[in-house]
Amino acid sequence: MNSQVITEMLLSGVLQQKQKKLDEVRSQLNWGTPLSELPVWDKSEFIEKSKTQTGLIVISGIVHDCADFLVEHPGGQPLLKSSFGKDATVAFNGGVYAHANAAHNLLATMRIAVIRDSRASGNTFNSQLEYLAKKSEEALAKKEKN
Ligand code: HEM
Question: Contact, 92 vs 99, CB < 8 A?
Fold first, then answer.
């Protein structure tokens, strides 16, 4: 066996150990309820429930209960409060503010339902990427026009 093969074997052993540790940490984190386990609501159900329950926000086809988070929101209470009972997908993904990874992960812990026929995606970054792609296309078109 040549030395390169030995080095690669040792490295893959080290990588496996590291992956095991990462998997352990990952399993202890709260990644939010999987979408398949959430109840499914019609849009009208969301509107109806929002009349009596404060703090519900739709982002990327998923209903989140943000009531307890209101006082903690780094972007302030008024912006979050004005999104209660609404679809804030665009606002959350750059329309008002492009939230960081941590905010997307935090959001996932607040899931309570999925909206029927909504292209719901557990990966809220998809909407962020779509939003950014649209923005850059617009910017390009504007540049070409000038
Ligand atoms: C729905 C759940 C929301 C969660 C969990 C959330 C979470 C956060 C977090 C963790 C930050 C700190 C910076 C970052 O991580 O990006 C932040 C900042 C901010 N958020 Fe939100 N946010 C939510 C909704 C919204 C909405 C709907 C708006 C606007 C309509 C908004 C506007 C802002 C703004 C403007 C900041 C920047 C604060 C600053 O640095 O000055 N957020 N948010």
Answer: yes
Instruction: Give me ligand 1 centre to Cα 44, in Å.
Output: 26
pLDDT tens for 42-75 read 999 999 999 999 999 999 999 999 999 999 999 9
Task: Please name the residue whose Cα sits nearest to atom 5 of ligand 1.
Answer: 107
d(Cα 33, Cα 141) in Å, to the nearest integer? 40
The confidence band for 129, taking pLDDT boundaries of 50, 70 and 90, is confident
Take atom 34 of ligand 1 and give the residue whose Cα is closest.
Answer: 75
Q: Are 124 and 60 in contact (CB under 8 A)?
A: yes
Mean pLDDT, the chain, rounded, equals: 91
Whether ligand 1 lies within 6 angstroms of the CB of 90 is answered as no
Query: Measured in angstroms, how far is the CA atom of residue 125 from the centroid of ligand 1?
Result: 14
* pTM across the whole model: 0.80
- Whole-number Å distance, alpha carbon 1 to ligand 1 midpoint, is 55
Q: DSSP assignment of 63-111, as one string?
A: EEE-TTTGGG-TT-HHHHHTTTTEE-HHHHBTTS-B--HHHHHHHHTTE
